[in-house]
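Subgroup meeting minutes
Present: P.N., E.W., G.H.
Scribe: E.W.

1. P.N. recapped why we're keeping a running log of single-chain structure predictions: easier to compare across weeks, and new members can see raw inputs and outputs side by side.
2. G.H. added today's entry (238 aa).
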Amino acid sequence: MVANPISLLAKASLAATLIAAFSALAPGVASAADCSASAGPGVDWTGCDKKIIIMSGSDLSGATLVETNFASTDLRDSNLLAANFEKATLVRASLARSKADGAKFDRIEAYRTNFSEIMASGATFASAEMQRSNFTGAKLDNVDFTKAELGRADFTDADISGAKFALANLARADFSKAKFSAPLDFAGSFFFLTRIEGVDLSTATGLAQWQVDMACGNGETKLPAGLTAGPNWPCAFD
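Output recorded in log:
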């Protein structure tokens, strides 16, 4: 039987209407990344190459920057609020003085990256690679550093109130001049030569004697009840 042309036209029209309606009701369906798009709120640069670029002062709030390559890029003084940098490359980049509250930096690669004076309250850096990174003067309250690699990271004058360092590698990281007003979580973190001279860790959670024994404290370091100073305190540095 030959189909009625009018019936076929009606069905096609109905299908087009349904597709349009679905698109209108599903704004969460993201458009494809546009690597040529200019920096702006909500931009999608997923997997794009943005290395060795001067982008200081950019507004990338709410941007999707998953797996974006920002190696050696200047992002100082930028608006990065709630941006998603998951798996991005930030090696030797600078995010100094940027606003990144609520941003997602999970699993980034950020060796020797400059995070100094960044404002990143409530951000997440889970499983991030950040050896030798600079966090001096940063605002990092309630930040999640779970399983992060922070060997030799510098937290001088950083506010780390309520931060979580569970299972993080803190070998030779410097907390000796960090600031905090809420307990820190160090459950299972690696404390090899971690600098805690003069730090009041009496309210810290998850801290065990084996961690303290390999850390570097001094007579002014305060520990949770039941823990005692390490046998080699104070450490001798070259």
